[in-house]
């Protein structure tokens, strides 16, 4: 999705902004642009380019100097990717420049009104209307011009504004799209993502929805869109600049898959309480008495996080015996859900900024529900909006497709399920059993990662398939869903996921030698049922790749994974399938870290 970076201070701004844009490249974009203000005249100079940040860099002239500037990577929504539609947008007099993330819903009405007043538009974007509103506003201060203009727009924004007549400041505002201020020594940064800031400062202030800020080189202040001052305490970002580097791997995806033993170790660290065979989750804000009154749990997330939520629901049902289910947040928010006071809602999101999830949380809060967050990015919008929650501590995830965050989110759910279970009816011995299982995970994940060479060979064999089927039963079904999503996202091979039990109700018609099936076959009480599904596929000459605890006779190939507790097995079964998707995509020559049409964090509808 779009990215914003801005700077005001003493340093030459263009190289700083270009570096910031490079750090935001992972979010996905199709054009980029930069504006700097000349230190002497205050005049604004702009360069934009369709394509990559390096295309923009190639266009930046030698004398593009200044100490204040804003820059942007754009993901096309209104208008195709082009030089004209790239941000920043400026008014005809070259006084105002803005960069904007989000969508202005009433842009066409405002465009018609402004056109009737004689304004000439240079782009097809929704953002340009805001530029003209600010430029035409006759308030005395930049803050007031921006504030009054924002009042006229409907929609979402993270926005940064420069004005040639007020060149000692940048004014920023947030409504539904992240804006983070970075505080340096006599310099200030702004960005839509801490990734663009951490190589310069780790002291940040995250704006809330409805909040604005004025940043100057040595000072900043925050206030609401109605003008009331707010207090903003800077916090320290945990993540180091190096966590965003590739660290010797060829792709971020490979790096992030490999990091999983350490990442899982982190989500467990400091949380296990052996004395009571439970875990401590400091940020939950839910005491034991309240936890006992929960009658249902509803988990909401999108994509991979939704799949993690499905596994989470299974963990909660089996360990805490609370009825639980998961639903895509994007669907939930549009079906006027019945919000029940005895239901605990849990929003799951790696980025903590996914608009569909945030909107579902806001709708739930409006209806008086209690909402917890299971989130990776500390201080993100969903984390702040929730009443409490569990951070998944996976570290930054740069690859567009999620791997380590998925695994850590599921582990976080296991912790939550254990915590709730031990408050309710889970026995001490079962608590101990799960804790032992959790402690084994990092080592068992390392064991699986060591089999990468074998999985690579298998992936090369299966890469020629036009389509693939993934099946699993009960706990194995969300694993199949996630593995199928991973494969299609990065290899572009069509894939379907079905509960193994549903095969005979329809999808069996598809089975033939050209359609390989990946089957999740744990050694649990459903083993014989799963084997029966393999028989059915084999009888129709289907090729089978089983992910299992023991060799499967009916399968053409079996990838063996170490056994843990049955409740935790889905965590391990997912890992070789991440590698399968990775090596399939690699052998097909795909751009693994930036799959086509996808963005890292979907902050628009
Ligand atoms: C797939 C993937 C997406 C995200 C989804 C939600 O690999 O990463 O499906 O899981 O867009 O994102 P978050 O978790 O940031 O809310």
From TrEMBL:
Kindly report the protein's main subcellular placement as a broad class.
Answer: cytoplasm
| HAMAP family to which the protein is assigned, alphabetical | GlmS
* Role, per record: Catalyzes the first step in hexosamine metabolism, converting fructose-6P into glucosamine-6P using glutamine as a nitrogen source.
Glutamine amidotransferase type-2 domain: residues covered? 2-218
Does the record bear Lyase in its keywords?
no
How this chain assembles, per its entry, is: Homodimer.
Read off the InterPro entries from this record.
Answer: GATase_2_dom, GFAT, GFAT_N, GlmS/AgaS_SIS, GlmS/FrlB_SIS, Ntn_hydrolases_N, SIS_dom, SIS_dom_sf
Q: What is its EC number?
A: 2.6.1.16
Q: Protein name, please?
A: Glutamine--fructose-6-phosphate aminotransferase [isomerizing]
The lineage's top-level taxon is Bacteria
A Gene Ontology cellular-component term: cytosol
Q: Which reaction does it catalyse?
A: D-fructose 6-phosphate + L-glutamine = D-glucosamine 6-phosphate + L-glutamate
User: Which species does this protein come from?
Assistant: Streptomyces boluensis
* Molecular function via GO: carbohydrate derivative binding; glutamine-fructose-6-phosphate transaminase (isomerizing) activity
Location in or out of the cell: Cytoplasm
Q: Where is the SIS domain?
A: 286-426, 458-595
Q: Which PROSITE patterns match?
A: GATASE_TYPE_2, SIS
Q: Which gene encodes it?
A: glmS
Task: Recite the UniProt keywords alphabetically.
Answer: Aminotransferase, Cytoplasm, Glutamine amidotransferase, Repeat, Transferase
Instruction: Give the matching NCBIfam families.
Output: glmS, PRK00331.1
Which residues does UniProt mark as catalytic? Answer: 2 (nucleophile), 600 (for fru-6p isomerization activity)
Any one Gene Ontology BP term:
protein N-linked glycosylation
